[in-house]
Amino acid sequence: MSAPVNRDPVQKLPTGIASFDVIAKGGLPENRTTLVSGTAGSGKTVFAVQFLSAGIEAGVGGVFVTFEEPAEDIRQNMRSFGWEIEKWERDGLFTFVDASPDPMIETVESGSFDLNALLARVENAVRKVNAKRVSVDSLGAVFSQFSDQSTVRRELFRIASALKSMKVTAMLTAERTDDYGPIARFGVEEFIADNVMVLRNVLEGEVRRRTVEILKFRGTDHQKGEYPFTIIAGEGVVVIPLSAIQLRQRSSNVRISSGSAELDKMCGGGFFRDSIILVSGATGTGKTLTVTQFLRGGAAEGERCLLLAFEESREQLFRNAIGWGVDFEAMEEAGTLKVVCDYPETLGLEEWLISIQKTVRDFKPTRVALDSLSALERVGSIKSFREFVIGVTSFIKQQEITGLFTATTSTLMGGSSITEAHVSTLTDSIILLRYVEMFGEMKRGMTVLKMRGSAHDRGIREFTVDQRGMHLGRRFRNVTGILSGAPMHVSPDDLERVWTLFDAELDQGKRSGEPEDRRARERRRSH
Amino acid sequence: MLERPQAAEDDRILATPTLIKQLPPPLRRVIGDLSDKDKVLLGLEVSPTITRKSPESSQ
Question: Which residues of B are less than 8 Å from A112 in CB distance?
């Protein structure tokens, strides 16, 4: 009998906390103790209760040992997350060991003692509900209940090792005074547990940003670094894994229409099914139009399309679409379109990510358009924004659907936006829309800057917009510097030729107009 | 305690040994092996009475 090679002798217990298992590479090490350290308000208690809640959902009993908040407070506080602790207690899946200080009882220490009574209570509770998960909240509060610190230290070590022999997976919380300082207040907490995790709640540019970091998992692997998370009503802790989900992306060769045959041609036959397209341009260059066409293209093929609009109101969007010959209302009635309009400021970026993911999961679209990323840029710090973009792009790719994002550049003529700088490497295709100032007129130009995995038109094409949408014209030949925002035509001698390249009608008008002017001037002179 | 952990649960006891004074109120607890006599007396609120009484009785 050949025993299979056990590469990872430490078994992982999937916690069931959204995405936490991804960064923990499977979950918490089973039958071990994990310290969760964090400053006040970093979400330790919520995390500790959720760890049990996720187990209970799978029918696994849990014990919550509280040294800080009385059991009744916890029952009440956790209701907002949809965790009905009373029901779990009635079902015999959950029990408290309430070791919170009772203000009515005065306690005096006289001589040496141990915490055998507490240990007996924990063991009793574990037996009672057949618990596989135990949360202890918090170790720091044990220290503050007794004056003999060395005894407490010794007893905590004993309890930790007793928990291991009880064959339960335990989560112990601990306070820390500083988000980037010693792991925990009493300096010993991290040695009591096998594994250490840190929750942070950092104030960054007037915005709070929560992150979770796994510091060490004894004898097993985990993702390194800080991962943002959010705490939301009805769900609790939701971790946002960044690099983790990117690893699992596949890519397809199926092409879909952009909604404009001419643009499809420029892209070498259309967008790829599971790709992310960024449309970048100054205000009014035609970003929302590109989005509208993209949605029309999807609806025409009976696909479900989702529009997340952060810049314009519903009415405005629908009116604009009508102006381009697209009826959003009819598309919504047919069930091929869902338009979600919201102010970016109503939620934090982490919550937006969760909310977008939920909308996509519920509506199951094959095309998602987000107009615009730049509007969301101002909601959080640059770091959170980058994480949001990574989160949303990798989520969309994971769903194997197409995502079209827009970004607004701050300058009219060219340059790049913060959005672009953070998104460009994550997107598969980039379409630039630019104003081109030529001879006293603003023209609009479009170019496909990048099209991952495909040949594409490298020219900068002029385009016009009418009631049927976008029309791509010819290339801006003999013009250089469009992208940098300073267009110059290459050979001044060829002025006539450049004119003919843009607009034949206008060109004719000018030419016929000029001699008239000259004649008029000559007439005036002769008078 | 180890035989009847539920009793410890009901009385919310953590440390062993714990001495509980229920009557007369207020409720007092003394934890530890009672080696520090003054602390025990203090904890049970008996020592102030003794110290007050003893000078009286000697007079």
Answer: 32-33, 35
